[in-house]
Structure formats: C-alpha cells, structure tokens
Amino acid sequence: MATDDLKIPRVALGTWAWGDSGEVGDGYFGSSMTRAGLTEVVDRAQAAGLTLWDTAVVYGMGRSEAVLGELLRHYARRDYQLSTKFTPQAAGAGEDPVGEMLEQSLARLGTDFIDLYWIHNPADVTRWTPHLIPLLERGLVKHVGVSNHNLREIELADRILGEAGFRVEAIQNHYSLLYRGSENAGILDYCRDHGIPFFAYMVLEQGALSGQYSPQSPLPEGSDRAKIYNSLLPQLKTLTDKLASIGQTQGAAAPDVATAWAIAKGATPIIGVTKPDYIDGVVRAIAMTLSTDDIAELEALADAANVSTRAWWEQEM
Questions:
Q1: pTM listed for this prediction
Q2: Which of 50, 86, 154, 244 sits CB 3.0–4.6 Å from 254 for a disulfide?
C-alpha cells in the first residue's frame, strides 16, 4: 500500500470531545456542544478543504463515531477521509476482536471502508498487528497506522505488516510544545527518513495552550481536563502570552500559533473542533510562517514551564 495514495492534509480535525454528552461537566472535556453547532463545524471545515476526520471507538464509547457519521452523511464519500482506531484495551472476547470492533465503527460511521485505521495503543504488538492484514486485503481499511507506539514497537509492527506486503503508513502520538517525547526519542526523524506522516494529537493540550484559560478563568470544572491542567495554568502564562504575541503580529491567536509550530516541525496536527470559529483558526495556522527564532523561543519557554503533560495511558517514548 503506497503512502502517496493517502491524502495527507496540513491539519486533520479531531472529534475526541464529540464523545462527551454535550453537557458541561459530563465527560472528559466538559465542552458544551449542540447538533446545530457541530453541523456548522462540519460544513465550514468541508468548505475550507479540511476533510480528514479523526475519531475512535473509545471517544464516548461510540458516541463520537456516531455523531460524525451522521453529520457527514450528506457529503459524498469521496469528499472526506475517515480515521478511526482499534483500542486493544476495549477489545471483545470473540474470535476476531479487531474485525468486530471495525464492523461496529463502519456501522456508526455509515461507510463500508475506513481510509486510515489505527491500533490505538500497543498493548501487545505481536498479537494485534497481524489482525490488520486481512482488513487491508479485503479493502475494509485502505491504510493503517499505529498510535502511542514507541520506536521499537513501530519497527516491530512495520516488520509484521511487511511480511504480508504492507507497511505502517502513519504514526500518531501526543506531541506539543509541552510534550516532545516523540521528537526526543527519534520518532520524528524516523518518520522523515521513511516517508511516514506523523500525526500529532493534543497539540493544544486540551485547550491549556489556547490562551483562553487562566487561574482566574480555569478550564470547565467537573471535566477531567480541568483536574489535569488547572493547577498548571500559572506556569503556562508566559508561554501562552508569547503565543498570543506572535499571533498578534500575523492577525492570528495563540492556538493558531501552537498549531503552526507543530506544522513547522513536520507534523500533521489533529486539532479538536467543537465550535465553528475553530475552523477559522486552523485556516489561519496553515497560512502562518514562524521564524526559526520564534520556534526556538517558544520551545525555551515551554521547557522553562517545567510541566509534565504525559497522560496516564501514554508510555515513555
């Protein structure tokens, strides 16, 4: 399967938060969403050419996939790409847990194939990777990638797929100004050397790098992200102020700059979108150019913040 068959956008759109119920305080993000608002998000994104949508079974245990599938239904299937995931930790006890989880995803998304299918967490690379091969052979998935795998696990998955004439075609890890583990571990270099797209999730650290939140205006109480990030906000102020300052010089905002930083580093950011104006920010980020000095200063300020944002499900890279 040739990587150049996969249309790699400058930015992919994430729907992790769509797995929340839409009620503040009920879910991981605590974002208030309406069906009308998400419909406008999809329509504005599609019109802007932002057409790769990333989801997963475990985002609300199917809720994100179902909402996304419903909202994309009035678009031709050729006009968008779907990215979803098999999560070993949520696997069933049947004979083919990967195939069974995929069939459920296909039904919720209203499609008969997935453009980019991921093994979400490594768990056991030797056990789970071979299950991707029959899905590729049957055309149920067009391309495959691995998420939250370290370099040794990436290479092992690639060898297993290679024996059947396939390969790891994409890598997706947590990567942001505050968490550059994949860069330090050589995974970004590996991707460049092997022509593999690197997708970065949590580029905005669930809103903590958006500049919208401060100790006086914290993340939504009752949400999981508030428990993680609210105590870190004082340490992030200098960095978020700098993001906003750079953005101001280019008619942009702090989150646009954080997204543009990831693009400049060679990543395809996956940006969570819950409001229509977030699409405008993604468009601004794609058009931005950051200088070498800007990048160096942002990384220095991020290092000086001295925080750890590695999530509980993420291993050291």
A1: 0.95
A2: 244
